[in-house]
Amino acid sequence: RVEHPAGGYKKLFETVEELSSPVTAHVTGWIPTWLRGSLLRCGPGLFEVGAEPFYHLFDGQALLHKFDFKEGHVTYHRRFIRTDAYVRAMTEKRIVITEFGTYAYPDPCKNIFSRFFSYFKGVEVTDNALVNIYPIGEDYYACTETNFITKINPDTLETIKQVDLCKYVSVNGATAHPHIENDGTVYNIGNCFGKNFALAYNIIRIPPLQADKEDPMNKSEVVVQFPCSDRFKPSYVHSFGLTSNYIVFVETPVKINLLKFLSSWSLWGANYMDCFESNETMGVWLHVAEKKKGRLLNIKYRTSAFNLFHHINTYEDNGFLIVDLCTWKGFEFVYNYLYLANLRANWDEVKQQAEKAPQPEARRYVLPLNIDKADMGKNLVTLPYTTATATLRSDETIWLEPEVIFSGPRHAFEFPQINYKKYGGKPYTYAYGLGLNHFVPDRLCKLNVKTKETWVWQEPDAYPSEPIFVSHPDALEEDDGVVLSIVISPGTGPKPAYLLILNAKDMSEVARAEVEVNIPVTFHGLFKRA
């Protein structure tokens, strides 16, 4: 196990300046000539406004990064996204919009009457688009998990406009992990108010760009509604599973207390984090719907408690759904451990904190789709290649036990990526992940989900980001291609950061492109082919 006593990871959470124009990166190794396009990634880049700090990993103001690849040359560019949260903070030189874990105090210049009236406007929801970026039609949007997404120009990184999803479709927010089909159809999930005021979850579908060139957002629709285990407390949802015929929604015990959320925050200085609580008894409920008919399957899948942020992949096989997940065991919310004070602590304290946190494990669950009442008490999983089980119980629920596909003490396989274009929603073999060592990202990992074989890239005092797989244009095999990751190496030499290119077959280094500036943490992104 690798240790980090020098604390170089703290540089991941340091404010940086944007660039006025792209800078040339210094390449060592050889960039494949077929690799043409841009790696676009999002993350926080401003961790305080004047003397006011942001407190949580998901609070810093959104910075959009781009590495451009052209004829073996690489440039790097970055710009802050001009969200309302950012523009108003810059204008007023204070935190104006409450973020995930940071409360924005009311305007000190306002008198008591205008403050009193602003309570009735309710909460101003943040549009800080620091989590991911994805295409809708021909447009690109940066997003967080609220109802606001931000249209950006992927070439210049300029901010185009804020879009409110509520104006198009009935959701209170949407995840930063939509599924994008090869024809451009976008699926996402969000909390909503269902029938007679009960809470529910809507799956929304945004069609691909049509010949009329009309904005596909105008044609978005709800395709199916999943019920909520508690009519007043929706679960936190970060991603979901999709195959050609099914939608899989995993409802975890991390709950949003809506009464707290809707009561005037400004009266008691609350933020989003204050509205989460855990249901200690429900475990995890899994729901399945038929994608094309928008019909809920009346099967109640149950298993023991975990947190879930990222689905690895989902596929169908002979009347079963295989659902591969990056889980964190238990019902305590993992985000409780992602305050910046925790993440910037010295290595011994970082380790101590992570010992108390839920433990990570990559798991495969197998959901039977055809249930015969005669099989009461039996394991319904008949697939030869998995040890996962599904047992029909007398209350007609189906109890699931997983097959563990990756596990190491305080070592997570997280931020999973696959050869999504060809293998998303289909049987697959390989996943690429960011290895978290007590929450510190210190390695890149390739996992064979069938044999559990792993390949690792790791260097001392090097802190990579989510690996993005880019397929070779003439690929014959699933792992023909490269893996891209932004790495910071604060301790070693004059170059604080680089773009790393690995051979996806064996995770060996192909090239790196070094830059003269630090690059703070990024969460998610995509490769846009030229």
Automatic annotation (TrEMBL):
Q: Which UniProt keywords apply?
A: Cell membrane, Hydrolase, Iron, Isomerase, Lipoprotein, Membrane, Metal-binding, Palmitate, Sensory transduction, Vision
Q: Name one GO molecular function term.
A: beta-carotene 15,15'-dioxygenase activity
Q: How is the cofactor bound?
A: Binds 1 Fe(2+) ion per subunit.
One of this protein's GO BP terms? zeaxanthin biosynthetic process
Q: Which GO terms describe its cellular component?
A: plasma membrane
Its membrane topology is listed as:
Lipid-anchor
Under the heading InterPro entries, the entry gives:
Carotenoid_Oase (IPR004294)
**Which domain of life does the UniProt lineage start with?**
Eukaryota
Q: Where in the cell is it found?
A: Cell membrane
Reaction catalysed by this chain?
A: an all-trans-retinyl ester + H2O = 11-cis-retinol + a fatty acid + H(+); lutein = (3R,3'S)-zeaxanthin; all-trans-retinyl hexadecanoate + H2O = 11-cis-retinol + hexadecanoate + H(+)
- Supply the EC number(s): 3.1.1.64, 5.3.3.22
Q: Which residues bind Fe cation?
A: H177, H238, H310, H524
| Cofactor entry | Fe(2+)
Q: Which PANTHER family match?
A: BETA-CAROTENE DIOXYGENASE (PTHR10543), RETINOID ISOMEROHYDROLASE (PTHR10543:SF57)
The entry assigns this protein to a family as follows: Belongs to the carotenoid oxygenase family.
- The molecule here is called Retinoid isomerohydrolase
Lineage, broadest ranks: Eukaryota, Metazoa, Chordata, Craniata, Vertebrata
Question: What is the gene called?
Answer: RPE65
